[in-house]
Write a structure and sequence with these properties.
This protein is low in regular secondary structure and 441 residues long. It has a domain of 164 residues: E3 ubiquitin-protein ligase SopA (Pectate Lyase C-like), CATH 2.160.20. It is 13% helix and 4% strand. Strands 1-2 form a two-stranded parallel ribbon. The protein has a two-stranded antiparallel sheet with strand order 3-4. Strands 5-6 form a two-stranded parallel sheet. α7 links the parallel β5 and β6. The two termini are 45 Å apart. The relative contact order is 0.06. The N terminus is likely disordered.
Length: 441
């Protein structure tokens, strides 16, 4: 996995001075202990139960951590994609924003853990214990959760599309706002009158039977709710006197983006050469209006439903990103790489996409009123039902683009615009579609 300049500086600083404990950023000494021998790690944990375990943002992808003891550990934004965690102990661990895609979590214990906004797509978590856990906005799409225990868990706004929930225990769980719950397999799952359904109503025996689940009668309890936990506050690290740095080094500055956009923008202005990596991030439904995202790496990330009005993504690598129903009013994507991205039903009024590469992207139903698409590469783009009223398409490459029910009223076309046929645009083509032809180019 690509390491940012930030962490390169971080490691050099650690090697040149004494060990330090940070509010955000894992201790490489602890990580080395873990990776060298899980048995020794567990022995250390048993002998030092009060020791603070900081594995925030640690990269543990594809590692074998079966039966490892991570109880009470702080693992915010840790990368555990593809890791083996069978039987691991993660009680009360903080896994906010953690990446656990394709991880093997069979029989793991997440009792009381914070997995809010974590990504467990395609995870194998058969028999895992999530009782009492904070699973709000967690992504369980395509995960195998057969027999998992969600008793008393908070699952508000979680996603379960095509997840296997057979025989799972949802007694007392709060499923308010859960997405695609009915698209999951619920055969034999247990619900009770204390289970709060996605609609906000209590589960009934009728609802359970209609969905192949079982209903259990319990003494009535109030719904489980969780307070949102803030991210750890980034802190400055001052290395030893020799060598003296020119300025303090910030740990994980991208965390600032999720805490405060204005502070993030100030940081970027003061550190113009600092590399920012948001690859494979889940930023769905976030509010990041006006964020400075110039030249960031956000490949394969999702911003579905997010508010990114007036944000600046100039020169950013945004290949294979998803922006379904996002608000992108006056957002700047100038010369950005947006190949294979999905802007279905996005609101993109006056969005600047000039010079951007949108090859093979999905713009089905996007509202591109007044958008700047001059000199953009729109080859093989799906523009079905898209609204390009008053959009600037001068010099755009539309080779192979799908124009079905596309609105081009007063859109600006020029002789340098390449049509879906591969030919250059003409005034006749423009007039037939209600567009304007620019003779000045």
């Amino acid at each position: 996995m690509k390491k940012t300049l930030l962490f390169s500086i971080f490691f050099l600083a650690l090697q040149s001075g004494p060990a330090c404990t940070t509010t955000f950023g894992f201790d490489p000494v602890i990580l080395k202990e873990l990776l060298s021998d899980v048995t020794a790690w567990n022995t250390m944990r048993a002998g030092q139960p009060s020791r603070t375990i900081d594995l925030n943002k640690a990269n543990l992808e594809d590692t074998n951590l079966d039966n490892a003891d991570f109880s009470n550990a702080s693992m915010v934004k840790a990368r555990l994609n593809g890791a083996k965690l069978c039987g691991a102990k993660l009680q009360n661990a903080n896994l906010l924003f953690a990446k656990l895609k394709r991880a093997n979590l069979r029989d793991s214990n997440f009792k009381g853990a914070n997995l809010s906004k974590a990504d467990l797509k395609n995870a194998y978590a058969k028999g895992a214990n999530f009782s009492g856990a904070n699973l709000s906005s967690t992504d369980f799409r395509f995960a195998n959760l057969e027999g998992a225990n969600f008793n008393g868990a908070c699952l508000e706004n979680a996603r379960f599309f095509e997840a296997n929930l057979k025989k799972a225990d949802f007694r007392g769980a709060n499923l308010t706002g859960v997405k695609l719950f009915r698209q999951a397999q619920l055969d034999g799952a247990r619900l009770s009158n204390n289970t709060v359904l996605p609609s906000g109503k209590r589960a009934t025996s009728l609802w359970a039977s209609l969905n192949g689940a079982r209903h259990v009668k319990e003494a009535e309890k109030p719904p489980v709710t969780m307070k949102a936990e803030p991210l750890p506050t980034p802190v400055a690290y001052t290395p030893p006197a020799t060598p003296e740095p020119e300025a303090p080094i910030e740990y994980a500055p991208e965390i600032l983006l999720l805490q405060d956009v204005e502070t993030w923008n100030t940081f970027r202005q003061r550190n113009p050469g600092m590399e920012a990596d948001f690859q494979d991030e889940n930023l769905d439904d976030t509010g990041l209006e006006g964020a400075d995202m110039k030249e960031v790496n956000m490949t394969s990330s999702t911003m579905n439903g997010a508010n990114l009005d007036k944000a600046d993504f100039s020169g950013a690598d945004l290949a294979n990103t998803s922006w379904v129903r996002a608000s992108l009013k006056e957002t700047v994507f100038r010369k950005a790489n947006l190949q294979g991205s999905n802007f279905e039903r996005a609101f993109m009024k006056n969005t600047d996409l000039s010079g951007a590469d949108l090859t093979g992207s999905q713009l089905h139903g996007a509202r591109l009123y007044g958008a700047r698409l001059n000199n953009a590469n729109l080859s093989k783009v799906n523009l079905y039902d898209a609204d390009l009223t008053k959009a600037d398409l001068r010099g755009a490459n539309l080779t192979g683009a799908r124009f079905i029910d596309t609105i081009l009223n007063n859109a600006l076309i020029s002789a340098e615009t390449t049509l879906p046929s591969g030919k250059k645009a003409t005034s006749g083509w423009a007039v037939l579609r209600g567009a304007k032809f620019d003779d000045d180019e």
